[in-house]
């Protein structure tokens, strides 16, 4: 069963990629009307200042980073460089940069632009979120602390050769593909008002921004990929309200729309709409974290009992409408360290009762269950869990908070149990580190997980340059988490994007489906936008 | 007229000061923070960066210091810097005011045209079918959940009939504003229909109208000269009250229709904990209310010179 | 000559409104008796989203819970929100208005300043801010709605005191040796009870609608107990696939608020005949 789901996911990914390439010749011109569904406005169009997925929807077309995520091949690829060589110790990387990448103001990008952009991010007087990635580079912390002006690990060999020295053995692509490390032109940023006149390296240049309504981008003719982009214009429309988005999509006023579980069912059942559905197993794991500071949850048997007490498969199927894959452990399906031989916790209330009795809670206990209103990993799920927990004697009292307060609550550890969604890829090592005992709660070890065997596995994985060995160590660590059950493993998200029949070349991006490389998208002449 | 304005201002200034103090205090105890809220779905922000942002935004200063700074800045017309966009809040709100005003005016135009007409004709023939139908309609309009009504409009006129676009600002044209304006205007419309009907009925039964009738004035002239003018005072009061608070009430409609007004900016900012932006939006909404009420006071004097400022 | 007809209309609306409200209150009181299943624990995911049928007269929701039972229990929450918040508003408004009108001076200035403040901030905006601070939940909701719309009752109370003062009532009572509080409660309050009840009745409808609006904005009631507003707001995504999810809570809100409005109208005709034109 597990295997089947996984195969289906893989097949879908292939299908999505196939669909993109098997079309007739892409048409030049046209307009796409994409939607930004995560808020009613954009934060900033200065890529360095914002880590939000919402802003990155525009950022992906406007800006470029050193690496990119290739959704079809499911791996990191070089974007602004043509080749890279790594030293034997895995700490020095030499990049041959593109010599045909131009900023929208017409200037050619050189190694200086990368150095300037990344040094800006390390400005210790500003809170640039990309600092966490650039900190990997040797000497970056010194700049952050104000002890140095330049990052010592960044060395310009010539205009198109850059040497980067890093401090940990890892694939730097995981760090430098993040939108917050985009390469920006110094002269434009220093003019001021950059967020309103963003200039980047991407295939589309900025045209206008009507706050609260839309952003319009236009084709950049000097983009470095020959023949691309295809489209003339991108309109990114702000639409946070799912019910309204549904109407607008059916009314053909927008070209893409992200779907929730209810709409997923409706669109799949509709003969017309079902033709335009793009699905991908995203790298998000939904789980209920159990705080060991609350006594019952300090006992592994209780945590396992909860995993056994809930009919997770049924919730995924009936409530989430199969818009998710049942979670086994922490790492998502697409991780190379995901262990297909492990079976998720079975629904077994009797076993749950037995485990509870062994742990000293034959009559159960009561706990406060913090949740947000999110439809896929919030209140509706909690409401479905309550009756199951009740059957094994556990009383869950829901406490509703806003999504915004979620992280605050996690950081402060002010919860007994809390349900949320966590990014769990693509860097499996970095994501598992959230359970390393040395990781503080403020970083991401919200359940203060402390297990020496787990720490050892992770430390070893961080030391090795042998990729196969690292994957295996991480697999063991992930399986250890399965047994320790610091959380109730719920599901891995399946992101679903509906698109109109005249849109082609959308990518099934597992890091975030709304993040599209717009140069590959094209619009055929059936589009109602002229 | 000047006296009215001066007395009005003497009233407005303390209210405004109180509002400033209130919103500052309210939002200083808001749980969660912009910074931690930035990390969504596990795209966590590193603790060192968080701390730096707190410092940059001045969140670590003691409360009285922050309040003093806030008031001093407002006095100079500076509403602070938005956490989210790192731009002046005045600029952020500035671009939202025009769409907001357009929506509010459109909604009020709809409410006045339909509401006053219905109410007026209903009152001329009390108990008639028109009267009963419009009053049942009005009281139903007052009992509708706004977002539900908006959603229904969207389904009917955009999806089923395909007459109008379902959402958004478009290029600022008329077609985009109709649905949100109707959704927002239905409440005031219902209220106006009822008020107008009652006001006209009252005036029709008033002594001076009876006198006019008994003097042999034609029914038409009675209606034109006395009824309309006297009922107008009441209608203006209700219009003023509704108008002033409409920008605040527009929150729901703006969110539903993805309308780029002050209300949707406010809700979005509340959820992202962009406190300076929220404070700015509320201040804007309050200012609008006070401005409209001042205008209404002046309108009284114009319509009916007998009315002197209380 | 038109007055008799108006009276009759007032009477009809009172009866219809009263009837609708009685049904809602009856449902709230009798909920455990007339509900078919438990509104929370009665969930069964195997029964999710069943259209109205004999077993589930209003259908089931996404959790497989009987919507009829949830609406019946939801009446408790929605009516509680309406009634308690309006009691709060009336208490605040009346005590501020009475004392302001009676004592006058700086206290009167302060109260009218406060009233202006409350009028200037639209109550939905104010309630939204309070909900964000207190966090979603029934108690927060009652506080948010109960603190934010007392200005009308305050104004009426104050105006009434002033008019009674000018009529010499109060002086007479003072001469008789009555204390301030006693005068306020025995002489003034009964005179304004009528308009206050009207305002509170209409306000209850407003509070139920405000609860729905706040739910829509994501700041509603605490789970898992149902309120009509949260049921309606949660169901909006399923409007094409499972319309019954939203139709029934929508109708429940509509008819209850309609009932309260009609009742308020009718009550006004009886209790407050002079001011047929003024509406809160």
Explain this structure to me?
The complex is a heterotrimer of chains A (530), B (310) and C (280). Chain A is an alpha+beta fold and 530 residues long. Chain A folds into 2 domains: 7-239 and 500-523, Periplasmic binding protein-like II (D-Maltodextrin-Binding Protein, domain 2), CATH 3.40.190.10; 284-492, Dipeptide-binding Protein, domain 3 (Roll). Chain A is built from 17 helices and 19 strands. In chain A, a hairpin with a 5-residue loop joins β4 (81-86) and β5. Chain A is globular and about 70 Å long. The N and C termini of chain A lie far apart (47 Å). Chain B is mainly α and 310 residues long. Helix content of chain B is 76%, strand content 0%. Chain B has 12 helices and no strands. Chain B has helices at 2-28, 34-38, 47-56, 63-75, 89-124, 129-142, 146-160, 174-204, 207-214, 219-256, 262-272, 275-303. Chain B is globular and about 85 Å long. Chain C has 10 helices and no strands. Chain C has helices spanning 3-34, 67-103, 105-120, 123-134, 138-146, 151-166, 169-175, 180-216, 228-234, 244-271. In chain C, α2 packs parallel to α6 and α9 (228-234) runs antiparallel to α10 (244-271). The longest helix of chain C is centred in the first third of the chain and has 37 residues, at 67-103. The two termini of chain C are 27 Å apart. Classes of the chains: A alpha+beta (530), B mainly alpha (310), C mainly alpha (280). Chains A and B meet through α8, α14 and β16 of A and α2, α3, α5, α7 and α11 of B.
């Amino acid at each position: 069963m597990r295997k089947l789901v996984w195969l289906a996911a893989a097949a879908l990914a292939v299908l999505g990629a196939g669909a993109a390439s098997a079309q007739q010749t892409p048409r030049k011109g046209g307009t796409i009307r994409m939607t930004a569904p995560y808020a009613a406005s954009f934060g900033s169009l200065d890529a360095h200042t914002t880590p939000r997925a919402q802003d990155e929807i525009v950022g992906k077309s406007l800006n470029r980073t050193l690496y990119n995520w290739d959704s079809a091949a499911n791996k990191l690829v070089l974007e602004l460089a043509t080749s890279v060589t790594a030293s034997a110790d895995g700490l020095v990387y030499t990049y041959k940069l593109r010599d045909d990448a131009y900023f929208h103001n017409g200037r050619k990008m050189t190694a200086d632009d990368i150095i300037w952009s990344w040094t800006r991010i390390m400005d210790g007087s500003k809170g640039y979120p990309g600092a966490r990635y650039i900190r990997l580079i040797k000497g970056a912390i010194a700049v952050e602390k104000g002890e140095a002006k330049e990052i010592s690990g960044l060395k310009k060999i010539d205009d198109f050769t850059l040497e980067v020295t890093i401090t940990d053995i890892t694939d730097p692509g995981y760090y430098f593909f993040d939108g917050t490390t985009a390469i920006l032109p110094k002269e434009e940023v220093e003019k001021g008002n950059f967020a309103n006149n963003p200039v980047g390296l991407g295939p589309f240049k900025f045209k206008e921004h009507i706050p609260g309504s839309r952003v319009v981008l236009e084709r950049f003719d000097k983009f470095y990929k020959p023949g691309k982009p295809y489209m003339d214009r991108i309109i990114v429309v702000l639409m946070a309200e799912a019910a309204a988005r549904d109407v607008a999509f059916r009314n053909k006023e927008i070209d893409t729309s992200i779907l929730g579980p209810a709409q997923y069912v409706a669109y799949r059942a509709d003969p017309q709409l079902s033709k335009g559905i793009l699905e991908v197993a995203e790298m998000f794991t939904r789980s209920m974290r159990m705080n060991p500071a609350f006594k019952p949850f300090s006992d592994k048997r209780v945590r396992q009992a909860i995993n056994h007490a809930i009919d997770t498969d049924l919730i995924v199927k009936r409530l989430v409408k199969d818009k998710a894959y049942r979670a086994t452990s922490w790492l998502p399906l697409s991780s190379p360290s995901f262990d297909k031989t492990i079976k998720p916790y079975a629904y077994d209330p009797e076993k749950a009762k037995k485990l509870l009795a062994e742990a000293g809670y034959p009559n159960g206990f009561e706990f406060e269950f913090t949740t947000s209103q999110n439809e896929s990993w919030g209140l509706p799920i909690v409401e479905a869990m309550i009756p199951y927990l009740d059957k094994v004697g556990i009383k869950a009292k829901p406490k509703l908070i806003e999504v915004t307060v979620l992280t605050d609550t996690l950081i402060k550890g002010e919860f007994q149990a809390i349900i949320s969604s966590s990014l769990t890829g693509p860097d499996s090592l970095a994501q598992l580190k959230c359970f390393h005992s040395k990781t503080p709660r403020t970083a991401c070890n919200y359940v203060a997980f402390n297990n020496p065997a787990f720490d050892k596995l992770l430390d070893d994985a961080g030391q090795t340059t042998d990729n196969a060995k690292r994957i295996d160590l991480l697999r063991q660590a992930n399986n250890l988490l399965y047994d320790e059950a610091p959380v109730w493993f719920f599901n891995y998200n399946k992101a679903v994007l509906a698109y109109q029949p005249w849109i082609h070349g959308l990518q099934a991006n597992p890091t975030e489906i709304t993040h599209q490389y717009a140069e590959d998208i094209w619009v055929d002449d059936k589009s109602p936008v002229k | 007229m000047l006296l009215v304005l001066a007395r009005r201002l003497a009233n407005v200034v303390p209210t405004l000061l109180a509002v400033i103090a209130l919103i500052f205090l309210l939002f200083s105890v808001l749980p969660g923070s912009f910074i931690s809220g930035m990390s969504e779905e596990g795209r966590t922000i590193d603790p060192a960066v968080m701390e730096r942002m707190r410092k940059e935004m001045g969140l670590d200063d003691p409360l009285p210091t922050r309040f003093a700074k806030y008031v001093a800045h407002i006095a100079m017309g500076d509403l602070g810097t938005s956490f989210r966009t790192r731009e002046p809040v005045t600029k952020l709100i500035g671009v939202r005011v025009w769409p907001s005003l357009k929506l509010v005016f459109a909604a009020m135009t709809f409410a006045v045209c339909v509401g006053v007409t219905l109410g007026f004709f209903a009152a001329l023939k009390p108990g008639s079918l028109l009267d009963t139908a419009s009053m049942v309609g009005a009281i139903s309009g007052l009992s509708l959940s706004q977002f539900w009504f908006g959603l229904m409009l969207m389904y009917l006129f955009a999806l089923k009939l395909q007459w109008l676009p379902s959402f958004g600002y478009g290029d600022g044209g008329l077609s985009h504003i109709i649905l949100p304006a109707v959704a927002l205007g239905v409440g005031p419309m219902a209220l106006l229909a009822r008020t107008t009907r009652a006001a006209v009925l009252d005036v029709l039964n008033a002594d001076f109208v009876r006198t006019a009738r008994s003097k042999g004035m034609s029914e038409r002239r009675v209606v034109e000269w006395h009824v309309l003018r006297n009922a107008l005072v009441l209608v203006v009061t209700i219009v003023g009250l509704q108008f002033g608070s409409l920008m605040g009430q527009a929150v729901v409609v703006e969110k539903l229709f993805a309308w780029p007004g002050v209300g949707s900016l406010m809700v979005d900012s509340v959820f992202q904990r962009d406190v300076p932006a929220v404070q700015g939006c509320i201040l804007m909404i309050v200012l609008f209310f006070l401005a409209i009420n001042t205008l209404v006071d002046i309108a009284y004097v114009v319509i009916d010179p007998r009315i002197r400022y209380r | 000559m038109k007055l008799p007809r108006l009276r009759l209309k007032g009477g009809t609306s009172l009866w219809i409104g009263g009837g609708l409200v009685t049904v809602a209150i009856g449902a709230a009181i009798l909920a455990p008796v007339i509900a078919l299943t438990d509104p929370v624990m009665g969930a069964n995911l195997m029964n999710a989203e069943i259209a109205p049928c004999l077993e589930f007269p209003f259908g089931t929701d996404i959790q497989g819970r009987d919507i009829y039972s949830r609406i019946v229990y939801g009446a408790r929450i929605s009516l509680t929100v309406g009634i308690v918040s309006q009691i709060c508003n009336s208490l605040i408004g009346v005590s501020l208005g009475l004392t302001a009108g009676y004592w006058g001076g700086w206290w009167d200035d302060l109260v009218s300043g406060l009233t202006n403040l409350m009028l200037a901030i639209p109550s939905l905006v104010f309630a939204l801010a309070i909900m964000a601070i207190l966090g979603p939940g029934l108690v927060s909701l009652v506080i948010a709605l109960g603190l934010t719309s007392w200005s009308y009752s305050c104004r009426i109370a104050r105006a009434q005191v002033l008019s009674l003062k000018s009529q010499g009532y109060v002086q007479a009572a003072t001469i008789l040796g009555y204390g301030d509080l006693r005068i306020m409660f025995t002489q003034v309050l009964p005179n304004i009870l009528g308009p206050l009840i009207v305002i509170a009745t209409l306000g209850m409808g407003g509070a139920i609608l405000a609860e729905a609006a706040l739910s829509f904005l994501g700041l509603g009631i605490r789970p898992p107990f149902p309120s009509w507003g949260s049921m309606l707001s949660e169901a909006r995504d399923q409007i094409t696939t499972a319309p019954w999810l939203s139709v029934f809570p929508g109708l429940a809100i509509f008819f209850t608020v309609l009932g309260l409005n009609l009742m308020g109208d009718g009550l006004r005709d009886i209790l407050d005949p002079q001011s047929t034109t003024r509406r809160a």
